[in-house]
């Protein structure tokens, strides 16, 4: 889920950039299909972006020419280059029309199976510990783990990655994960399972909603939806 001042416009930007279809559109939500039951969801949110996002997307490329083409397409659609202190790196850091940072990576073999989104990347103070937490709820294996970086991978679709940063979390994340029980599951059982792994309930202003808002051990909010 991506908080947005204009879900329709932001959803169309990402649909065009990724070459993926919009599969649902309402007054306060737009869905872009990633495949295998996964979606990018853009939801209406009143609060403005204030600091660098702690969760961002990395986009995959297949060659230097493809990387350049993705960057050019993004800029033509309204993205802008941004400096977040990355220095001299082989990837390109951009921000979408609402200021959400994302990276266009150079070609990497480990992302050949992911589709256009290589990874969902989460800033963390302890990447291995946070990866170990998320391995439980998602059932995904930890494929790489070191002091500054850890990764969970799935057979198809983006990896979930954690990168060490020094700065603490200070505001609600504008990008977060939504989890859903299997069709034969139920919300209370799934919430209890996640709490047993170490998640805690949090109040982000939700009132009467059919989902439950939790946070992981570093305070990253996520939602548990009703079965799909």
Shape: globular
Cα end-to-end separation: 16 Å
Helix content: 10-25%
Major sheet description = 8 strands, mixed
Number of strands: 16
Structural class, from helix and strand content? alpha+beta
The total count of helices amounts to 4
Strand content: 25-35%
Measured on Cα atoms, how large is the radius of gyration? Answer: 17 Å
Main sheet strand line-up = 6-7-8-5-9-12-11-10
Quick rundown:
The chain is α+β, with helices and mostly antiparallel strands and 228 residues long.
Account of the 3D structure:
The protein has 228 residues and is an alpha+beta fold. It is 21% helix and 31% strand. It has helices at 7-18, 64-77, 127-138, 187-197, and strands at residues 2-4, 22-25, 29-35, 38-44, 55-59, 80-81, 92-95, 101-104, 117-124, 142-145, 149-152, 159-164, 177-179, 200-201, 212-215, 221-224.
Would you spell out the secondary-structure blueprint of this structure?
Blueprint: E1 2-4, H1 7-18, E2 22-25, E3 29-35, E4 38-44, E5 55-59, H2 64-77, E6 80-81, E7 92-95, E8 101-104, E9 117-124, H3 127-138, E10 142-145, E11 149-152, E12 159-164, E13 177-179, H4 187-197, E14 200-201, E15 212-215, E16 221-224
Parallel strand pairs: 1-4, 5-8, 9-12, 13-16
Antiparallel strand pairs: 2-3, 3-4, 5-9, 6-7, 7-8, 10-11, 11-12, 14-15, 15-16
Which key features would you list for this structure?
228 residues, alpha+beta, eight-stranded mixed β-sheet, four-stranded mixed β-sheet, 4 helices, 16 strands, globular
């Amino acid at each position: 889920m991506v908080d947005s001042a204009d879900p329709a416009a932001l959803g169309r930007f990402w649909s065009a950039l990724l070459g993926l279809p919009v599969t649902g559109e309402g007054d306060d939500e737009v869905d872009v299909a990633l495949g295998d039951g996964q979606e990018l969801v853009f939801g209406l949110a009143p609060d403005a972006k204030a600091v660098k996002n702690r969760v961002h997307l990395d986009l995959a490329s297949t060659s230097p020419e493809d990387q350049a083409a993705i960057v050019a397409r993004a800029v033509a659609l309204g993205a802008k280059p941004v400096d977040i202190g990355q220095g001299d790196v082989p990837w390109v850091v951009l921000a979408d029309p609402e200021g959400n940072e994302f990276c266009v990576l150079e070609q990497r073999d480990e992302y050949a199976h992911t589709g256009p989104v290589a990874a969902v990347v989460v800033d963390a103070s302890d990447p291995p510990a946070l990866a170990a937490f998320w391995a439980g709820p998602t059932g995904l294996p930890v494929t790489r783990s070191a002091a500054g970086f850890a990764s969970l991978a799935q057979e198809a679709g983006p990896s979930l990655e954690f990168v060490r940063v020094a700065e603490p979390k200070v505001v609600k994340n504008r990008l977060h994960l939504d989890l859903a029980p299997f069709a034969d599951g139920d919300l209370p059982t799934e919430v209890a399972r996640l709490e047993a792994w170490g998640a805690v309930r949090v109040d982000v202003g939700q009132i009467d909603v059919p989902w439950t808002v939790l946070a992981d051990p570093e305070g990253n909010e996520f939602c548990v939806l009703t079965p799909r």
